[in-house]
Automatic annotation (TrEMBL):
Keywords: Glycosidase, Hydrolase. Residues 272-590 form the Glycoside hydrolase family 2 catalytic domain. One of its GO terms (biological process) is glucuronoside catabolic process. This is Beta-glucuronidase. It comes from Agromyces bracchium. The keyword Hydrolase applies.
Length: 595
């Protein structure tokens, strides 16, 4: 699905701002049938959970409703009119006046509707959106709803971050011609000093296709005609980690001498390859340094915020990192665009987190606490169908981003259980069918070492989350070092594939200090990471380290988490802990070739 853009043939109207808001308590009737009966207002984009002082809203399980009026510009007469939602977590339904126009499942990916037949250029219409936060054993991510005394519902889930909900990203109204570009796929390669930009254009209606590639100074470097082809770029400037270079690809639909539609996108020419136990970008070994992150800030929850986007990337640059994983769901498209422009490498992950009833953020068996899961611990045909949808929509959205170098199709699933290889093998094949140009991985959980995991054989890169010294060998870094190295060498010997430590770290309270290796202190966090780094440097197949987490974030794991997960290198408001400075020393040395 193409991201809406303003071009010579397309226009955009932002619908962000304050919307009427109401929780569906059973007395709203049909909220789309007229003005929403509420005095509450909620900003878009934002999670709704932390906005209000009423705990019934924060803890609500089920549907909430947003509503506003919008006006179609009068100049859009004769154009197709679309409404686009960048995300509705976890399920959305949209009404124009009293007509349902689209319904979508999956809380972190976009959807849209052609509303041309329901609106009039120059006139207002009522836009009502229902958002449902319920998770079941068959959704991605999964969960289970428990009914409490008095009829109140409680949502349980297996992932260790708060189940924020709402319209987390932008809502836009846009126009496009009836005959238009509906999709573009770009694949790049390099032969000597020549860049190859393969493209495939899909359209609605019949029209000739013309493509033009320009460099960053606006000079034309290649042109072609036809819906498919390859543009050759002599003396190509490559997209490099830390040194992004982006060409502009303009796609035009032409009827006679007239351009009936135009769409443009950035193109970074680069190659990605796994060769033996190395990860190569542009044919050169690449070592990942960085983080697992979260979309999580105070008050707005998972609501996208451009100020935090810029500041987070500035901190990534300051600390010397070159990458991050979109743990554990697709991030806003603005994040991916920014990574493209600034040369930050991304492991792009689906929302398949918590597919594991053995853990709840590594803490307890939540499924058991909530009465047990139905079916096959969730690994049934309904979940598989939802999982395929998540993979398909993620790749469709992010396939053209040069920053994306690998797909992660799940985080910490139960890969110990019999039958999980039968569940995951077709999903790996499906991801490779949709995109044969990038490696595919998943992230392995600590209870599934190399001799136990049934799924790692399908991955191109071994990605593992380990907490030796924290959840295991707690506070005993000497023993943790022995156990960590032994396991990594076990992976290396069994698979011979490149390995990335996608999570490692320790909860840390800012300002807590000790002269001993005392868990929760800033010194312990730094010492634990130093221990991991010593081991990484001794294991040849290690190609990356991504600390858990970039910043502290909110969770809902009861008394085990005191106001959230505190494994951040930065606090939730982005203040550095002591470990940030030691990481900066290590990672800037790696970045500058001094390590």
């Amino acid at each position: 699905m193409l991201k809406p853009k303003a071009t010579a043939t397309r226009e955009l109207v932002s619908l962000n701002g304050l919307w009427k808001f109401a929780v569906d308590s059973g007395d709203l009737g049909e909220p789309w049938a007229g003005p929403l009966a509420t005095k509450l207002e909620a900003p878009v984009p934002a999670s709704y959970n932390d906005l209000f002082t009423d705990s019934a809203i924060r803890d609500h399980v089920g549907w909430v409703w947003y509503q506003r009026t919008a006006r179609v510009p009068r100049g859009w007469a004769g154009e197709r009119v679309f409404v686009r939602f960048d995300a509705a977590t976890h399920e959305g339904v949209v009404y124009v006046d009293d007509v349902e126009v689209v319904r979508h499942e999956g809380g972190y990916l976009p959807f849209e509707a052609d509303i041309t037949d329901h609106v009039t250029a120059g006139a207002e219409f009522r836009l009502t959106v229902g958002v449902n936060n319920v998770l079941t054993p068959d959704t991605i991510p999964p969960g289970l709803v428990k009914e409490l005394p008095g009829g109140r519902k409680q949502q349980g889930y297996m992932h260790d971050f708060y189940n924020y909900a709402g319209l987390h990203r932008s809502v836009q109204l846009y126009s496009a011609p009836a005959t238009r570009v509906t999709d573009v796929t770009v694949v790049t390669d390099v032969e000597g000093s020549t860049g190859l930009v393969g493209y495939a254009v899909e359209t609605s209606g019949e029209a000739a296709v013309r493509t033009t590639l320009r460099d960053e100074q606006g000079a034309v470097v290649a042109t072609a005609v036809g819906a498919e082809g390859t543009l050759e770029v002599p003396d190509v400037r490559l997209w490099q980690p830390g040194a992004a270079y982006l060409y502009d690809l303009a796609v035009e639909l032409v009827e006679g001498d007239a351009v009936v539609d135009e769409y443009a996108l950035h193109v970074g020419v680069r190659t990605v390859e796994v060769r033996e136990n190395r990860f190569l970008i542009n044919g050169e070994p690449f070592y990942f340094t960085g983080f697992g992150k979260h979309e999580d800030i105070a008050v707005k929850g998972k609501g996208h915020d451009d100020a935090f986007l810029v500041h987070d990337f500035e901190l990534i640059d300051w600390i010397g990192a070159n990458s991050f994983r979109t743990s554990h769901y697709p991030y806003a498209e603005e994040v991916m665009d920014y990574a493209d422009r600034h040369g930050i490498v991304v492991i792009d992950e689906t929302a398949a987190v918590g597919l594991n009833s053995r853990i709840s953020g590594g803490i307890a068996d939540l499924m058991s606490a909530f009465g047990g899961a139905s079916g096959e611990e969730g690994f049934g045909p309904k979940m598989a169908e939802a999982h395929r949808r998540e993979i398909r929509e993620l790749i469709a959205r992010d396939k053209n981003h040069p920053s994306v170098v690998m797909w992660s199709i799940a985080n910490e699933p139960d890969t110990m259980a019999e039958g999980t290889d039968d569940y995951f093998e077709p999903l790996f094949a499906y991801a490779r069918e949709l995109d044969p140009t990038r490696p595919v991985t998943f992230v392995n959980v600590m209870m599934a070492p190399p001799n136990v995991c049934r799924v790692s054989k399908f991955a191109d890169v071994i990605c593992i989350n380990r907490y030796y010294g924290w959840y295991v060998d707690t506070g005993d870094l000497a023993t943790a070092e022995v156990h960590l190295e032994a396991e990594l060498r076990g992976w290396e010997q069994m698979y011979g594939k490149p390995m990335i430590m996608t999570e490692y770290g320790a909860d840390t309270l800012p300002g807590l200090h000790s002269v001993w290796d005392q868990p929760w202190t800033e010194e312990f966090q730094a010492n634990l990471l130093d221990m991991y780094h010593r081991v990484f440097d001794r294991v040849d197949s290690m190609v990356g380290e991504q600390v858990w987490n970039f910043a502290d974030f909110q969770t809902s794991v009861g008394i085990f988490r005191v106001d959230g997960n505190k494994k951040g290198v930065f606090t939730r408001d982005r203040r550095p802990k002591a470990v940030a400075h030691s990481l900066r020393t290590r990672w800037t040395a790696i970045r500058d070739g001094r390590a």
